[in-house]
Amino acid sequence: MRAVFVRLAVSRSALARRLAVSVGLVALGSGAACQSPPAAPVAPRVADPPVPPTTAAAPVTAAAPPDEPVPLGRLPAGVRPTRESLALDIDPAADRFSGTAEIALHLDQPRARIWLHGRGLAVRSAGFVLGSGAEVAASWEEVDPSGVVRVTPRAPAGPLRGDVTLRVAFDAAYDPQLVGVYRVRTTAGPAVFSKFEAIYARRAFPCFDEPAFKLPYDVALTVPASAEVIGNMPVAETAPVAAAGAAGAAGTARKRIRFQTTPPLPSYLVAFAVGPFEARYGAVPPSEVRPAPLPLTAIAIR
Question: How far is CA 46 from CA 40, 42, 52, 105, in A?
Fold first, then answer.
């Protein structure tokens, strides 16, 4: 330890001597600079010619606001669906189904576009019916694989305001994954079912496919006359539908089943089935806690 201490002391002494020499050199350099001769006089500068005035620049136009980001979570607030009418054409023997949807909307403030859900739908037409009754064509864009859709009125309609109705005509294939609207083969023939929970309704029709949106639905199905139709509301009306086949010949007989309006429901609680079903009807008799009979129906493949 003593030897190390001695080396450290020597090093410090040498460092002090070097610092003293450096300071002396700086001082000499400063003195030499002070004794330098004065610089030669500079000729007077000729004034620059006057610069002609320039015209005023045109005002900068503010950039257009950026497009609204795609809502990958919940849909934006301020657009409230109040009612939806569905008219679907379903034939279990066909490979696709088609339909129209009309969604009544209330906008809390003017909007340039509407966001909703529709996954894998082949949209043939889309448009808005304004509060004045005027109809405006719109573009339908599925902008995310999850089924988020942007619907924009075409120019020169301008922003949407107040109460409007969105109309969409579309068709789609039966879903092969047993969700949305899907088809199964049975010994009695093909049958079509719906399975919309939790977010599969968007695969069947345009909708606001979130449980927070609860609205009444009017559902009508056009099906082959021989098919049985099941819904989650009582049947309100059954009517025959004429269908023309090739070369004007009479086509397959069809019928239209219209169900009663549902209470306010989220989209995943809409339900129906079309196929070769048999049903047995009955009722549970009244009791002390239920004065009216309770209707009961058992349904199975024929």
Answer: 18, 12, 18, 76
